């Protein structure tokens, strides 16, 4: 997907995900299929079916099972850590960004278990190896979002700010995104 369209999508995604995190909601299944657009281009986050409230450790809408889509799950979510927070969603945002700009997911394998193992053990692939036309800063943004140690990760607003500060056309102001019911 061209850089301009990627920035526009993240301009729409950032406010909704940051608003959910501010309310203590961790989506836990961020993936392209859960980002919906209406006929006017308004974006909606959907499928909060496995969301967790951060203040209620161990409580999910589906019980304490490890659920999600392997290609987008953070290592801490895969490992069943009970204390996951919004950083797990940010990891998935990094995967989505990687996929949008390279045309493939960062970790691929023949089975879902193979993907899960790579999510935990393999370093983040260098996106510039797949798309050398990107500004080098994009690789840094993705690596920060997909950091495996869980440490300080950027918010989606910080990702958008970093992306719009690059030497490429900026799509303009933020388009407000709404949380879907």
Q: Overview of this structure, please?
A:
The protein has 181 residues and is mainly α. The chain is globular, with a radius of gyration of 16 Å.
Could you tell me the strand content as a percent range?
5-15%
Q: Give the oligomeric state of the chains in this entry, treating copies of one chain as homo and distinct chains as hetero.
A: single chain
Physical arrangement of strands within the biggest beta sheet: 2-3-5
Rounded mean pLDDT is 77
Q: What structural class do helix, strand and pairing data support?
A: mainly alpha
Q: Helical percent range?
A: 40-55%
Low-confidence runs (pLDDT<50, min 5 residues)? Answer: 49-64, 167-181
Query: What's the Cα radius of gyration?
Result: 16 Å
Secondary structure elements and pairings:
Layout lengths: L2 H20 L2 E2 L8 E3 L5 E3 L6 E2 L21 H4 L7 H17 L9 H10 L5 H4 L5 H10 L10 H9 L13 E2 L2
Parallel strand pairs: 3-5
Antiparallel strand pairs: 1-4, 2-3
